Amino acid sequence: xxxxxxxxxxxxxxxxxxxxxxxxxxxxxxxxxxxxxxxxxxxxxxxxxxxxxxxxxxxxxxxxxxxxxxxxxxxxxxxxxxxxxxxxxxxxxxxxxxxxxxxxxxxxxxxxxxxxxxxxxxxxxxxxxxxxxxxxxxxxxxxxxxxxxxxxxxxxxxxxxxxxxxxxxxxxxxxxxxxxxxxxxxxxxxxxxxxxxxxxxxxxxxxxxxxxxxxxxxxxxxxxxxxxxxxxxxxxxxxxxxxxxxxxxxxxxxxxxxxxxxxxxxxxxxxxxxxxxxxxxxxxxxxxxxxxxxxxxxxxxxxxxxxxxxxxxxxxxxxxxxxxxxxxxxxxxxxxxxxxxxxxxxxxxxxxxxxxxxxxxxxxxxxxxxxxxxxxxxxxxxxxxxxxxxxxxxxxxxxxxxxxxxxxxxxxxxxxxxxxxxxxxxxxxxxxxxxxxxxxxxxxxxxxxxxxxx
Length: 454
Hints:
The chain has 454 residues and is of the alpha/beta class. It has helices at 12-19, 33-48, 72-88, 99-103, 105-109, 126-131, 182-186, 194-206, 231-239, 259-265, 284-290, 296-309, 328-341, 368-391, and strands spanning 23-29, 51-54, 62-67, 93-98, 116-118, 139-141, 164-171, 190-191, 211-216, 246-249, 274-276, 314-321, 345-350, 397-406, 409-414, 419-423, 432-441, 444-449. The strands form four sheets. Strands 2-1-3-4-5-6 form a six-stranded parallel β-sheet, with helices on both faces. A hairpin with a 4-residue loop joins strand 15 (409-414) and strand 16 (419-423). Helix 13 (328-341) packs parallel to helix 14 (368-391). The chain is globular, with a radius of gyration of 23 Å.
């Protein structure tokens, strides 16, 4: 059934008086935690303009698809969700934002039903841009991201339905790894002013959030455009905010893990010993072709330094198999290296060429069946390492922040980001409780609340 057109440019009160309902907007987010943060921020902008946020599979006046373009599958998924939105309301305004829009705005606007294309900047104008449009309009509002020099002010005070808050502190990347399109879709490094960060964290604490996760495109680069300020300064400042109990960072590169950095970090009692150190390969020759800025010895040094300060640290990583030219010997070098350093979790990705990157046109592209085999080998090793790490937790105590509930079981994470399941008659959502870990069964960790520790 065709829904009638509505006039979104009306003020919220006038819209309600005319149509006897509020304006409706729905979101779908692909990709990383930065995208999720930006979606949350856009949700706030629409709510502040009188919109109700509804489920993406329901009727809405506006559908916003926040896209990813890390792989060709990301582009495909983005196109699928764009087409799906129009089925719920043929007269809806479809706005497409994010990395895929930034990279290929003409391709996106050509998709049937798309009314507005915005990239990875100026999202704070999205409500205004949407309300200018008629369902027949097709508008591209994408700026040259490589000319951006200032962090875009998007902020949130509450992330609906969540107990931890993701906090974007940095934008852009200047690493230019040979396989990665992101520097071209996110632009140069721009850091968020620290006073703005602190203001948002205080609002989050006031709204009951106990944990913040510092996110960005390349978090380790925070401050390089601001002068004499670094990531550690942000962590220290947040540590002093009442109501915040935990601070995490998203992925950082191993070169930030120095003796000086760790000596300052160990004095920050709210910091969570969970380090996602992106590796990508355990072969120096592959790392060089990838244009990574470290070698495997430097990476291992970072791991050793962390474990010296934080013996129970959970160290996780990303690995790409089947990078162009990766020989059997280079892959075996990676496998043996990963077996030796024994990380808690490894996310294994099969190389996917991205148009516009150096790796996409390199010689000796690896056959899919070889990538599949190598991926299976490393996934098996990853599962073994994870099991061994978690087995060592049985019989120990840990503080758990509980985030979800289903079928009588509460789920939460320890400081080092291990998921724990607890049965309880108390409402534990949003609470931090001390737990005795007593069982590992079917790849799940179970614990019991220690009395008087909540």
